Amino acid sequence: MLKGTFPIDKMKALETPFYYYDVNLLQKTLDVVKAEAGKYDYHIHYAVKANANPRVLSIIAANGLGADCVSGGEVQASLDAGFPAGKIVFAGVGKADWEINLGLDNDIFCFNVESVAELRIINELAALKGKVAQVALRVNPEVDAHTHAKITTGLKENKFGINLSQLNGVITELLAMQHVKLIGLHFHIGSQITDMSSFQDLAICANEIQEDLATLGVHLDNINFGGGLGIDYYHPNHLPIPSFDNYFAVIHKLLKVRPGQQIHFEPGRSIVGQCGNMISKVLYVKEGETKNFAILDAGFTELIRPAMYDSYHRMENITSEEEFEVYDVVGPICESSDVFGKDVELNKARRGDLIAFRSAGAYGEVMASQYNCRRLPKAYFSDQL
Ligand code: LLP
């Protein structure tokens, strides 16, 4: 079985668990996303929530992308990493006053507004500063993303966005406000989407909404399709770069772009997912009655996706070429959900072996916690080891 390539001797000297980022792959992925988006003049705002490691952010900022943020902390981290405020968009259903003020003080490109209640507060806070905030309305398009329920966002029952039936009312109220300016619509239907028909439905829905709004005399300068493009967790070695060409082509083919209109995307996982790996060590191999357990020094505190979303991450014993054996791979946390995978085939595992969790660059390090008073994992980069 083909494994990833890692600087194993150097890794053996490091304290585990840790994250390891392949900066060449990150750069290659950025080159592809820029080239493919460039074909249609699409604007890319990297979704900071996927990975906010300062070095990752600064590499992405240096490539000229914008940032998509969901908290004041992310807005600040983006500014610190060198993203220009004029390319920062700020979404989220519960923006606190200080977070809105931070956006206003820095003149960010756009607030993606999720409710009329929020809109009123942005208008009030902008008035206090004598500013006009640029806003896009996040619309809940009722498009099924066909992905895990916990990462589906575009359905009526989800807390996100403004429902279609209420959109006209919100726009009417917005147009009467003095300190907000409507510059566009924003959508985001979910994450880890591999079925392109969901994006087709989204483009068609955007067309219909725009036609509807045009009859009211409302024309929008910007349409933002959010993020969501999935990655191949099963074949990280064969398919390290997602099909951005296909993704943008689907939207380009169906979307009716109005004159002068700018189209935006907020990819997170598809940019950073495959360049990151979580490296952990086998502490013990426990031979149970019916199965063997590989007990690692990493748990859901370092990588929560399997416990939280039943996600699959490919696991490789990168320090062994011995015959494959089957293990339940588990962590040290005192909870029964601290299981990375059942009946996982690994090259025979012994104490001290290094296990790589592939495709862990997105929603990995950034979701780490200190539960059980554990230390946060460190991060290393391929050009520094
Ligand atoms: N834009 C908005 C408004 C979002 O809410 C998200 C992700 C993105 C963009 C980026 O989506 P992406 O391109 O990464 O799919 N922790 C979960 C994923 C949560 C996604 C939340 N929103 C996981 O580990 O699978």
Uncertain spans: none
What is the percentage of strand-forming residues?
15-25%
Count of helical stretches: 11
Radius of gyration from CA coordinates: 22 Å
SS elements, strand count: 17
What would you call the structural class?
alpha/beta
* Distinct ligand kinds: ligand LLP
Globally, the shape reads elongated
Structure description:
With 385 residues, the protein is α/β, with parallel strands linked by helices. Helix content is 30%, strand content 23%. It is built from 11 helices and 17 strands. The protein has helices at residues 8-12, 23-38, 54-62, 72-81, 97-105, 116-128, 164-175, 196-215, 244-254, 269-272, 305-309; strands at residues 18-21, 43-47, 66-69, 88-90, 110-113, 133-140, 162-163, 180-186, 222-224, 262-265, 276-287, 292-296, 315-317, 324-330, 339-347, 354-357, 378-381. The strands form 2 sheets. Strands 1, 11, 12, 13, 14, 15, 16 and 17 form an 8-stranded mixed sheet that branches. Strands 2-3-4-5-6-8-9-10 form an 8-stranded parallel barrel, surrounded by 5 helices. Strand 9, helix 9 and strand 10 form a beta-alpha-beta unit. The protein is elongated and about 70 Å long. Ligand LLP is lined by residues 47, 49-50, 68, 91, 151, 188, 191-192, 226-229, 266-270, 305, 309, 362-363. Residues 47, 49-50, 68, 91, 151, 188, 191-192, 226-229, 266-270, 305, 309, 362-363 line the site of ligand LLP.
Primary descriptors:
single chain; 385 residues; alpha/beta; eight-stranded mixed sheet; eight-stranded parallel beta barrel; binds ligand LLP
Furnish the topology, listing elements before pairings.
Elements: H1 8-12, E1 18-21, H2 23-38, E2 43-47, H3 54-62, E3 66-69, H4 72-81, E4 88-90, H5 97-105, E5 110-113, H6 116-128, E6 133-140, E7 162-163, H7 164-175, E8 180-186, H8 196-215, E9 222-224, H9 244-254, E10 262-265, H10 269-272, E11 276-287, E12 292-296, H11 305-309, E13 315-317, E14 324-330, E15 339-347, E16 354-357, E17 378-381
Parallel strand pairs: 1-17, 2-3, 2-10, 3-4, 4-5, 5-6, 6-7, 6-8, 8-9, 9-10, 12-14
Antiparallel strand pairs: 1-11, 11-12, 11-16, 13-16, 14-15
The structure holds ligand LLP.
Ligand LLP is lined by residues 47, 49-50, 68, 91, 151, 188, 191-192, 226-229, 266-270, 305, 309, 362-363.
